[in-house]
């Protein structure tokens, strides 16, 4: 397990990244669950040269759901090790299909050669910001519903008082 903290600029705005790389290590489940509870978004990564890592990645969204109790979490799916194309076991189409199922962005990268790594993090930050920009609208709708409920409840209360 590796942890990194860094600040970057994405779309001319600062972004603070707190990254926990568990590399699929089962022995860090307590720490992983803690990060899942507080994480604003997740990068689910698998090796294109390892079919089992793809299958584990395919199960990861359910793991996030079990911890967070929602599917509405910003995600990016990443097929890594494109520098080892000759050893590929997972097709690009399979990765794209899983990303469609997850309703998330998909990238193929090479961490070893630093290909498209920044794109992954920028994509995730954009997904997080998009979700955050929608929150005020949802909160406004909730407040409006709450306000309508109070009015209705108040008028029912007045009606009840006038009939007794």
Question: Could you walk me through the main structural features you see in this protein, from its secondary elements to its overall organization?
Answer:
Helices cover 52% and strands 21% of the residues. Helix 3 (92-102) links the parallel strand 4 (75-80) and strand 5. It has 4 helices and 5 strands, in the order ββαβαβαβα. The mean pLDDT is 83. The protein has one domain (2-133): 3-Layer(aba) Sandwich (Rossmann fold). The longest helix is centred in the last third of the chain and has 47 residues, at 117-163. The protein has helices at residues 29-38, 51-68, 92-102, 117-163, and strands spanning 2-10, 13-21, 42-47, 75-80, 105-108. A 3-stranded parallel beta sheet has the order 3-4-5, with helices on both faces. It has 164 residues and is α/β, with parallel strands linked by helices.
Output the CATH topology. Answer: Rossmann fold
CATH homologous superfamily caption: P-loop containing nucleotide triphosphate hydrolases
The pLDDT mean sits at: 83
Can you summarize the main beta sheet?
Answer: 3 strands, parallel
Report the end-to-end length measured between terminal Cα atoms: 67 Å
CATH class: Alpha Beta
Shape assignment: globular
State the total count of DSSP E strands.
5
Number of helices: 4
Helix and strand pattern: EEHEHEHEH
User: Widest sheet: strand order?
Assistant: 3-4-5
